[in-house]
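task queued by scheduler; priority normal; single chain, no ligands, no partner chains; default sampling; output format set to structure tokens
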Amino acid sequence: MTAEDRRPKTDDQEPIVWTKVSRVLIVKLRSIGDTVLCTPSLIALRKFLPDAQIDILLEDWVAPVLDGFAETDEVVILPKGNAARLRVARELRRRRYDVVFNLHGGTTGTFLTFATGARHRVGYSHYQYSFLYDHLLSSSSDYWRQPQTHSAEQQLALLGFVGIPVEDRPKSSLAVTSAAMASVDARLTASGFTSHDPAFALIHPAAAFATKQWAPSGFARTAEFLAQKGIRSVAIATKNEREILAELVRGSAASVVTFDDLLLPEIAALASKARIFVGNDSGIAHMAAAVGTPSVVVFGSSNRNHWSPWTDAPHEMVFEELPCQPCPGYVCSEFGEPKCILTVRPDSVTAAIDRLL
């Protein structure tokens, strides 16, 4: 089946003449994981338009995720504040993009897409203010002709809808910069690692919501299991999550090195050095998958069909099946506490690690 055969007939606008396209913008105003999962679309776009200017608009705090990423020419940074965002909108219009894809349908992204003045603006028909787009796809399920689609597939579908080949479904990918690697090597050396140490495991015990956060005691048992195999553990989180790291360290009989101040490019570098990643469903898990690290990801409330690691690297998802999954995840309305994540057993996680190792 060709891309033309697969494309739903919901686009009644003039077709994009790709031989006349020289400037393309991707709008992706979301989190770390969403940014990682847009890299397959950037890879497909670059393969199709090797000589075009391909830029991506990201929020300032997440933009470093794509440091060194070769498939884009420029990361345009969107700061906070209305005045600053208005300046960015004016700059985007000045650049005269031919085609703009909004890979997520938020209101801010829609208005910035429209503000570019691009002749072709591509989005989904369910986006709010969808009348501001010129090309609207009904759904990724219609495009791929399957009931369940991954986040990466949902983004790729928008490209395929307007004629870009995406049938090979590229996997997520991140660059590891030399500066980030040098910084990580120095941090590991200062923490007692030497060039003769065996490979380490990277643990990420934090998550955005309680329904996605496995108990620190479970990660403590995981660190002990890894230590028995001669693998040291390095755990990471943010400064706001340092108590999670402290609880993990207190609860583990094995030594765990912790970092709560790594920059996003440093996390990519650290993950690329790890023998295995073990953590919750989070943006950090997607970063580990994107640098090719084998991973064990603990799932709670999230939709596994939508948020599984999008990678060719070995990986396993660990979860306890409940009829209320998936759910939005902000609170547990079924039990009052997130049984989906709290009932995941340490031996399920260690068994998955065993299989990958």
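post-processing summary
- The mean pLDDT is 94.
- Residues 82-95 form the longest helix (14 residues).
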